DNA sequence: GTAGGGTTAG
C-alpha cells in the first residue's frame, strides 16, 4: 500500500515522540525511496532523531536535503537545525544557521535553541552574551529561555550569575512557573548553596513532584543524607507519591548512612509501585546493599538485571572492594570487559581501590597502565590517590612519592593524604612530614591529617612532634570533631554527635540508668528520647519498648 | 500535524 505524504509525516512524528529514533530515521529513508518529498513538517523529527542518535554526518546530509527541497527557512525548521547542531556539538554550525537567517532569528524560539545549545556545550559566556542580546534587541524572553540558560550557572562559584538570572526571572514574572522554579532550585543546589536552595524551595508557591525531587537530590548530591530522609518523609506526608527519581536520591543517602533497614523499606516501596525494572533504581539498590555490607543481596539484584551498564558493574565491583573481597572485585572487572562493556574513569576507581584494599599491588598497577594505554583515559586525582595508597600499603613509599611528583594534574588532598596514611603504617617520619606539609596546604582544616601525624609521633615516641601538632591545631582553632552516630529505630532515623548526646544525656539525668542496661545501647537511646521529647510520642523516656532494639543498626563514622 | 526546557544511579 502506498502511503501519502502526510501519513509519512504522522508516522515519523509518532516514532520520534516515542523516542524510537532508529525507526524514525528508517521511516524517513523509506519515505525518500517511495518518492514522497519531505517538507517542513518532516524535517524537525528527522533532525531530532539524528541528534538523539549522535549522527553528525547524517545530520549534515539532512541539512543539505533541507536546502535542496527549498523549504522556506521558517522558525520551526531553523530551531530544529540549530538544536540538532548544538546537540551534536557543532555550535559553530548552529550559529551559522542562526546568523544566515537574521530576519527570522528575531524570534524567541531560535534564540532559545541557541542559548541552551551554548549551555549544553559549556559555553557559559556565549550563552549569557546571547541572553543579554535578547534583552537589548527586545526579543521576548520566556520560561524556556531561562530553562536553557540556568544550567550554565549550576557550577560551584557561579552563584552571583545565578542570582542575577533569578532576579531577572522575578522582574519578568517567570519565577512563578514551576519549571523555572525547579530549574533555579537545581542551580542553587549545584552551586553548593544548599541553604539558598532550601530557602527558595520553601518560598516556591507551587511545588510539584519534580520540585520535591530536585530538593531531595540536591541534598543527596551535597552529602546531606539525613536531610534527604527527612524531606522524603515530609514529602510522603504531604501526599506526594515518589517516582523512581525520588527513590534514587533516597537510596543513595541510605547507602551513605549505612541505613540498611530504611533501604530495605525503600526496596519494598519500589516493588509495590512497580518500579522494579528501572535500571537507575537497580543500580542505586546495588550500591545501597553493597555499602551496607549486604553483598549477597547486592549480587542478587546485579545478577537479575537483564541489561547491566557500566554503572551497575562499578557499583558491585566497588561493593566487593570496599569489604576486602578484592579478588572477586578484580574477577568481576575482567568479566565486565569480556562482556563488552567499556570501563570509564569511575569503573577504574572502583577496581583500583579494590586492589589497594586487598593488597593486590601488581594487579592494581597493571590496571592503572591499562586504563591509560588501552583505554586512553586520563587519570584524575581520584585515580592517583588509589595508586598512591596501593604503593604505600605495599611499603613502596618512594615510588608513591615519585608518582605524585610526576602527575600531570594537580594533586589534591586525598593524594598526599594517602601517602601520609602509608607513612604512618610504615613509620616513615621524614616522608610523613613532607606529605603533611603538602596536604595541609590543600586542606588546612581537615583534622584527620593532624590526627594521623600526631599518631605517628606517638608510635615513634616523638613527644616534641606531638606538642607541635597540638600547637598547630590550637593556632588554627581546630578541635577534633566528635564522631557522628547514625541510628535507625523502627524505621525512624536519627543522628547525633557524641558530645551533644552526652550533654543531652546529662540533662535527662538518665545516662547512668541506661548504662546499667547495656553501654552500647546508650548511643541509640538518647536520640530516641530526644525524638520523643520533640515529637508526638508522649511516652515517658523509660517506657521505651526495648524489644525493638534488634531492628537497629548503627554505624560510627568520623568526619 | 511542526521547534526550544526542568529532577535520576557508580
UniProtKB/TrEMBL annotation:
Claim: rRNA-binding is one of the keywords in the record: no
Short name of one Pfam family: E_motif
UniProt entry keywords in alphabetical sequence: Repeat
Keyword Heme: no
PPR repeat feature ranges: 4-38, 107-141, 208-242, 278-308, 309-343
SUPFAM superfamilies, sorted: TPR-like
Alphabetized PROSITE patterns for the sequence: PPR
TM stretches of this protein: none
One GO term (biological process): RNA modification
Listed name of the protein: Pentatricopeptide repeat-containing protein, mitochondrial
Native source organism of the sequence: Turnera subulata
Amino acid at each position: 500500500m502506498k502511503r501519502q505524504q502526510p501519513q509519512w509525516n504522522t508516522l515519523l512524528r509518532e516514532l520520534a515522540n516515542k523516542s524510537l529514533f532508529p525507526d524514525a530515521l528508517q521511516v524517513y529513508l523509506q519515505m525518500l525511496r517511495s518518492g514522497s518529498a519531505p517538507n517542513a513538517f518532516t524535517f524537525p523529527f528527522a533532525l531530532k532523531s539524528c541528534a538523539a542518535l549522535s549522527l553528525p554526518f547524517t545530520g549534515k546530509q539532512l541539512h543539505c536535503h533541507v536546502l535542496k527541497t527549498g523549504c522556506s527557512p521558517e522558525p520551526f525548521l531553523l530551531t530544529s537545525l540549530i538544536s540538532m547542531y548544538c546537540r551534536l556539538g557543532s555550535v559553530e554550525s548552529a550559529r551559522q544557521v542562526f546568523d544566515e537567517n537574521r530576519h527570522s532569528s528575531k524570534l524567541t524560539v531560535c534564540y532559545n535553541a541557541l542559548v541552551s545549545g551554548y549551555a549544553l556545550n559549556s559555553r557559559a559566556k556565549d550563552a549569557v552574551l546571547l541572553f543579554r542580546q535578547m534583552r537589548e534587541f527586545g526579543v521576548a524572553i520566556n520560561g524556556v529561555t531561562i530553562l536553557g540558560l540556568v544550567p550554565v550557572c549550576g557550577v560551584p562559584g557561579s552563584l552571583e550569575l545565578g542570582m542575577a538570572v533569578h532576579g531577572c526571572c522575578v522582574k519578568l514574572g517567570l519565577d512563578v512557573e514551576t519549571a523555572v522554579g525547579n530549574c533555579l532550585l537545581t542551580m542553587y543546589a549545584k552551586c553548593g548553596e544548599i541553604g539558598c536552595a532550601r530557602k527558595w524551595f520553601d518560598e516556591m508557591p507551587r511545588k510539584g513532584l519534580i520540585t520535591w525531587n530536585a530538593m531531595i537530590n540536591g541534598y543527596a548530591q551535597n552529602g546531606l543524607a539525613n536531610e534527604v530522609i527527612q524531606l522524603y518523609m515530609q514529602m510522603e506526608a504531604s501526599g506526594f507519591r515518589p517516582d523512581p527519581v525520588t527513590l534514587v536520591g533516597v537510596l543513595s543517602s541510605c547507602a551513605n548512612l549505612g541505613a540498611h533497614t530504611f533501604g530495605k523499606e525503600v526496596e519494598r516501596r519500589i516493588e509495590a509501585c512497580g518500579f522494579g525494572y528501572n535500571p537507575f533504581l537497580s543500580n542505586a539498590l546495588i550500591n545501597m546493599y553493597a555499602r551496607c555490607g549486604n553483598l549477597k543481596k547486592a549480587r542478587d539484584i546485579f545478577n537479575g538485571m537483564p541489561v547491566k551498564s557500566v554503572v551497575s558493574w562499578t557499583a558491585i565491583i566497588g561493593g566487593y572492594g570496599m569489604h576486602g573481597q578484592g579478588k572477586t572485585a578484580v574477577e568481576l572487572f575482567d568479566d565486565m570487559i569480556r562482556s563488552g562493556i567499556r570501563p570509564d574513569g569511575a569503573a577504574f576507581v572502583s577496581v583500583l581501590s579494590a586492589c589497594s584494599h586487598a593488597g593486590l599491588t601488581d594487579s592494581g598497577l597493571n590496571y592503572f597502565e591499562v586504563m591509560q594505554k588501552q583505554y586512553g583515559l586520563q587519570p584524575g586525582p581520584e585515580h592517583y590517590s588509589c595508586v598512591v595508597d596501593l604503593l604505600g600499603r605495599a611499603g613502596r613509599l618512594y615510588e608513591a612519592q615519585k608518582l605524585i611528583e610526576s602527575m600531570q594534574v594537580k594533586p589534591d588532598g586525598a593524594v598526599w593524604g594517602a601517602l601520609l596514611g602509608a607513612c604512618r603504617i610504615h613509620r616513615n617520619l621524614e616522608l610523613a612530614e613532607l606529605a603533611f606539609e603538602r596536604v595541609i596546604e590543600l586542606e588546612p582544616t581537615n583534622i584527620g591529617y593532624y590526627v594521623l601525624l600526631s599518631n605517628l609521633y606517638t608510635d615513634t615516641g616523638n613527644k616534641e612532634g606531638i606538642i607541635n601538632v597540638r600547637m598547630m591545631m590550637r593556632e588554627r582553632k581546630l578541635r577534633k570533631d566528635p564522631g557522628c552516630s547514625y541510628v535507625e529505630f523502627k524505621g525512624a532515623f536519627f543522628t547525633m554527635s557524641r558530645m551533644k548526646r552526652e550533654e543531652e544525656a546529662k540533662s535527662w539525668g538518665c545516662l547512668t540508668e541506661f548504662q546499667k542496661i547495656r553501654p552500647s545501647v546508650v548511643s541509640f537511646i538518647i536520640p530516641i528520647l530526644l525524638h520523643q521529647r520533640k515529637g508526638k510520642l508522649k511516652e515517658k523516656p523509660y517506657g521505651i519498648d526495648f524489644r525493638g532494639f534488634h531492628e537497629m543498626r548503627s554505624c560510627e563514622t568520623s568526619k
